[in-house]
Specification:
Pathway: Cofactor biosynthesis; 7,8-dihydroneopterin triphosphate biosynthesis; 7,8-dihydroneopterin triphosphate from GTP: step 1/1. Its EC number is 3.5.4.16. It catalyses: GTP + H2O = 7,8-dihydroneopterin 3'-triphosphate + formate + H(+). It is a single chain. This protein has eight helices and eight strands; from the N terminus they run βαααββββαβαβαβαα. It is an alpha+beta fold. The strands form two sheets. The protein has a five-stranded mixed sheet with strand order 6-3-4-7-8, with helices on both faces. A three-stranded antiparallel sheet has the order 1-2-5. α1 packs across α3 and α4 crosses α5. The chain is elongated.
Length: 198
């Protein structure tokens, strides 16, 4: 019986400085004309600092892969993976779902890891286009499958709550690699299973 290949995936570098973030949040709110004197707002800078630290700190996880002993060669797809990230242009959230699939090669991936990979790249200031490509490229590099497909559908509060205020609008991005890009039938199957008209 084969043992799974494991690799712990984590961010390196310094962690958040919550004290400095809280002071900066207080300065920002004060500069925007918001008084922090009331009981309900006094703790807001600290809550802001902790909230953004949580949004920007991905959890470590074990990347678990297994040998594809059965030679499974059809699409593996996880649909409706929740996505939450923060637009790097306005630091406002965007939320939606990701559909992530691959055509296995020699190894298959523990299914929960598809959601972990999405979370890993979403926990930082982002643009949706880059996030979509990062997930696909990372899977392609780490798993070496025959093909990878990633579709993300998200609503951006920088577009719905400010500026054009296009409430209810969503943005769809996709990245296809390998067979899912090159073969029309495989591409069509992927988009049909995600519910996206390719």
């Amino acid at each position: 019986m084969s043992t799974p290949a494991l690799r712990v995936v984590h961010e390196t570098g310094p962690g958040p400085d919550l004290e400095a973030a809280e002071a900066a949040a207080a300065d920002l709110l004060t500069a925007l004309g918001i008084s922090l004197d009331s009981e309900s707002l006094r703790g807001t800078p600290g809550r802001m600092a902790r909230a953004y630290a949580e949004l920007f700190t991905p959890r470590s996880f074990d990347l678990t892969t297994f040998p594809n002993d059965e030679g499974y060669d059809e699409l593996v797809l996880a649909r409706g993976i929740p996505v939450r990230s923060v637009c790097e242009h306005h630091l406002l959230p965007f939320v939606g779902v990701a559909h992530v699939g691959y055509l296995p090669g020699e190894r298959i991936l523990g299914l929960s890891k598809l959601a972990r990979i999405v979370e890993h790249f979403a926990c930082r200031p982002q643009v949706q286009e880059r996030l979509t490509k990062q997930v696909a490229d990372w899977l392609d590099e780490q798993l070496q499958p025959r093909g990878v497909g990633v579709v993300i559908e998200a609503e951006h509060s920088c577009m719905t709550l400010r500026g054009v205020q296009a409430a209810g609008s969503s943005t769809v991005t996709s990245t296809l690699l390998g067979t899912l890009r090159e073969d029309a039938r495989s591409r069509q199957e992927f988009f049909a299973l995600t519910g996206i008209n390719g």
